[in-house]
Amino acid sequence: MVLKMLTGSQAVAWAARLARVDYIPAYPITPQTEIIEILSEWVRKGEMEAIFVQMESEHSLFTAAGTAAATGARVFTATSSQGLLYGFEMLYSIAGWRAPLVLVNVARAVAAPITLEPDHNDVLAARDSGFLQFHAENVQEALDLVLFAYRVAEDHRVLLPAIVNIDGFHLSFTRERVELPEQSFVDEFLPEYNPVNPIRASEPVAKGIPVLIPPLYSFFKYQMHMASRNALNVFREAAKDFEKLFSRTYAPVEEYMVEDADTVIVMSNSFASAGKQAVSALREEGHKVGLLKIRLFRPFPTDDIIKSLRGKKCVVVIDQNISVGKGGIMCPEIAEALYHLEDRPRVILPVIAGLGGKSISLEEFRYAVRVAERLASLKAGPDGPLLLFREDEAILVESLLKTASGG
Amino acid sequence: MRFRFHGRGGQGIKTAGRILGKAAFFEGLFAQDFAIYGAERRGAPITAFVRLSDAPILERGHIFNPSYVLVAAPSLLFDPTVKTLEGMVEGAVLFVNSSREIPILQPKKVHMIFRDVTGLALKYVGKDILSAAMGAVACKLSGTISLQSTVDSVGEELADLGLEPDMIEKNIQLAKECYLCVESVGLSGLSYKPSHKVVEVQYLGEKGIPDLLSVGNTAFRKTGSWRVFTPIIDRNLCTACGICYVYCPESCVSLDEQGYPAVDYDNCKGCLVCAIECPRKAIKTGRESAWS
Ligand code: SF4
Ligand code: SF4
After folding, report:
1. Whose CA is nearest to atom 8 of ligand 1?
2. Whose CA is nearest to atom 4 of ligand 1?
3. Distance between B285 CA and the closest CA of chain A, angstroms
4. How does pLDDT run across A14-44, given as a tens digit for each residue?
5. Cα(B259) to centroid of ligand 2, in Å?
6. Separation between Cα atoms, residue A31 and residue A14, nearest integer Å
7. ipTM score here?
8. Tens-digit pLDDT profile for residues A268-307
9. Residue of A46, A40, A14, A18 whose CA lies nearest to A27
10. Shortest CA distance to B292 belongs to which of B103, B105, B116, B122?
11. CA-based Rg of chain B, rounded to a whole angstrom?
């Protein structure tokens, strides 16, 4: 094991290298480009025995990635935001071919208006595609989850592709101290990919066949769903092996001061660090709060969520995304997981925060927790998601609007 | 400890942050470095953030409550969009790359240090590239990073960028001098008490559509503040050939009725293309001090 200072981009590139991937089709987009620059450099210098191909768009990139995986190659690629959406159609195809590959999405809010900073509308658009989804909070996790993603995706009980999400800038360009795993340990954790019915020139196979008989389509989709559900236990198994080799471990969710908490904040990805910090500060102020981080978003870890949140007074779900006209994407899923419990939380408060990389301050966390606690004492429910904004930010926006309108 | 670096694209500010981060890592500290460079272009304001701690760091992203602010391009102090002094409280440290003190409207008791590290960079490296200089100053100010770790970090970070060994050596000399040109400043109990209210966003109807109505506003942005070097045309040597007028990438040279060139100093970025192209060597260059 070597300690290194790595950015999120460098870390996932290292993970691809340690996973001994065979094929890397690529197309640049900010803020993902650093990843493919690093990989192309390693391939050029012969430090990695992979084939690197620059494609002409994300659509062909995903097509190349999926078909290569169907031949039995271990495939890595990365994209971001608009790029993910441009190739979107192919996500469903790759999942339908049951071709396991790993795609890193460097989260960036989707235009318009245009920005470079992150939220999760890009990655969550792929929620229903059949890809497994792993969401990373810090650089170490980004590296490790790519290894987990291969291990789980390629397992014959699963055979589905996976997305590992890292937040643009806040993770992709942030350098932290990271334990770089040793190659021999990674080889032990991640055996060679053993494909099912790989396409061979000598043994033709048709993948993703037309099914013009409706029950057949339903049947294959249900199979995908059940395969995805299997990924929960395969992940847990992998976590045990990982712990033996690397002395750290991961579960589908992570609890932070949840045990004795009355109110639990639910979050995912890199902004969960700010959430943990806020939890510590709010504890000092006397609020019994905790934080539950969703690490595996597909399959959805319903049982883990129930275990952590049953019996709590309030749950504050912070969605760093917005389904326009409804609210956050994650909150209804959390609510559904808890609905049938006798001891379900009194209040589930939907909150939208951190869109387009807007910071989430302690004040906003405190405000949301207070609103939830007040609703609980009033035995009332929220009337729509809270859209969080600080006063100084509101003033800034007002002055910029004035400038933009020529006022 | 939280460090915020302000500079302009091309000055090496991201690398300055990385030099500090890596040096702290060599000292066995937890370090985190991160830079925001928006639309990547030379001269645009860049901010780099570094956090150091002896425990794992749970913060990330923008630093609103810095213990140290290091300003590489002093003209940024007067750019209202950059907010160089944001969140500075009593006892925090402000380092400005300037040969003389600049009066700064700052009611609180901020510890201010002024040094001309551009002068040192020109002396050792021959260019206004400040990664090693600003990185080394930050290492020293922190009081927790040795000269050895600073030098090792400069060497490793610049080698990662693909610099030639002789250039790395020059930067190491620069870093050593910058490390010695300031004293460590201990921080005693900074108390940053953010007290922002949280507000509900109002629906603004048509005003809430992202339209820009005041178009054609580039002229209001005076890019002359980006200059480190000023081109000065010597009328006695100039033959009015017009070459500088053609070559200026910013269209900042105009010709008068007799065909003699004049520089628009409000917008000239100081790239010195004109001086290099002038066949008569009629364009002299001097270090800029116009921002004050
Ligand atoms: S230095 Fe010369 S070429 Fe460069 S912007 Fe100024 S006038 Fe134009
Ligand atoms: S290039 Fe030199 S000689 Fe020609 S117009 Fe410009 S300053 Fe004068």
Report:
1. B248
2. B271
3. 36
4. 999 999 999 999 999 999 999 999 999 999 9
5. 10
6. 17
7. 0.89
8. 999 999 999 999 999 999 999 999 999 999 999 999 999 9
9. A40
10. B103
11. 21
